[in-house]
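Our collaborator T.R. sent over the components below with a one-line note: 'Predict the complex.' Nothing else. No constraints on interfaces, no templates requested, no preferences about which chain binds where. So this is a plain run: every listed entity goes in together, and whatever single assembly comes back becomes the starting point for the next discussion.
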Amino acid sequence: MIYFLQQTLNALQLGSIYALIALGYTMVYGILLMINFAHGDLFMVGAFLAFALATFLGWSFVPTLLAAMIALAVLGVVIERLAYKPLRHAPKMSAVITALGVGIFLEHLMLAFNPYPRHMPELMPVHIWTFGQFSISSLQVLIIGLSVSLMVVLDWVVMKTKLGLAMRAISWNIKIVPLMGVPVNRVISATFAMGAALGAAAGTLYSMAYPVIDPYMGVMVGWKAFIAAVIGGIGNIRGAVLGGFILAGVEIGVAAVLPTTFRDFISFGLLLILLVVRPHGLLGKPRVEKI
Amino acid sequence: MNDTPLLSIKNLNVAYGSVRAVSGISLDVYEGEIVTLMGANGAGKSSTLCAISGLVPYSGAITYQGQSLRKMSPDRLVGMGMAHVPEGRGIFSNLTVHENLRLAAWTQKDAGKIREDFARVFALFPRLRDRQRQAGGTLSGGEQQMLAVGRALMSRARLLLLDEPSMGLAPVLVREIFNILRDINRTGVTILLVEQNANMALRIASRGYVLETGAVVLQGASEELRDSPRMREAYLGG
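Returned assembly:
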């Protein structure tokens, strides 16, 4: 029982990070129907930025996190403007291939300046509370608490604000939105900024929990977060969060009972089965339009 | 009626690749008028509206309130008092009726005025008030058309561009919508109405243009058009 609780806590921690990254995939897909495969590498850039600020400038957790989120928001907007916007009216496949290219570019840019794995310094003192055999660290509380808070804020932005209203409208029909007086490009920029900032938060938190970072760290984590978004129903905000926690739960669960080499094989296999049963994901809905 | 038109189009051309949709149309709409643009499917009516609101590239000159609209983005035109109700209505099915209307008030910053505009729209279309919390996609065709017109009113439009409001609606509903359009016009809103249903359009419009294969073939006051033999034969059903 204690073991189960302990593993649940681990799953919540990993799931928080998957969910934060999955939100970036799902938000961009939601408005542009495009899969931003560079997003996992934005997560990596966020982690390295946090590493640099903490190591070379000695910044503590809060300024490091905020600076990484703001810088990545800017980077997200710049990438969209330079790489994706010119392809807005091209076939979707062109934009997806461009995104893969942007991702490889970011990996190798980082590799050129920093070819070695790095060790993330401690951004804050970590306390561990022990209750018999069960233990919980302040870092786990921080990661889960902060991630869930960011998700709640994002959900509020999307469901309750004017910007969120415009984002949801764009996800239905981008062509009609300008006729409502909405500057579509600004809404798209805001979406990329928010998604990238969440990716930076995930990168910072991830590298605090698993403190060895390298330029390829975004590849596997990015794929998993993308799959989490698909499980939840890509384009659906709450689905991405749900998918992140489910994927982490399956991974931790498999690793708890089988050798860890079975982890990805079994969890991805289960996901393939889920997609056969529910191709639109758990919370995704196929579109039906009334004429 | 003023001397300078509210909207003026000179020698408009629209092409999609090598397909010419509009070839050399000129037309004027004066403040306070209802002007209708009639013609069969593919005559270039919708393309003309899309050119006016900046959705498709064109050559020729379009001026609104004396200002050239070249290079003007569609969202800025809404702020200038132009509202385009697109073909097929363009309702956001995933948003509620209330959200559809709220989105259309994007350019309005004053919360008090937004409340007034909601009240005005709900007074014209009481059914939308009852269905405020319902998703746009659950409305009937007629209700969707009302919502589309309601959205245009939320932006306090001076010029309404309407693309086939009668499409797919039962005759009784078409009459209801057209009566409301006439009421809206009486509050000072100018309307450019694209219609295939020439009978209905000429009942509320003061003037009309008839398009065939992208060019104006007939134009004049509604009574003249109703009496024109060519019009009767081709569009009014004898």
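Summary for T.R.: The radius of gyration of chain A is 19 Å.
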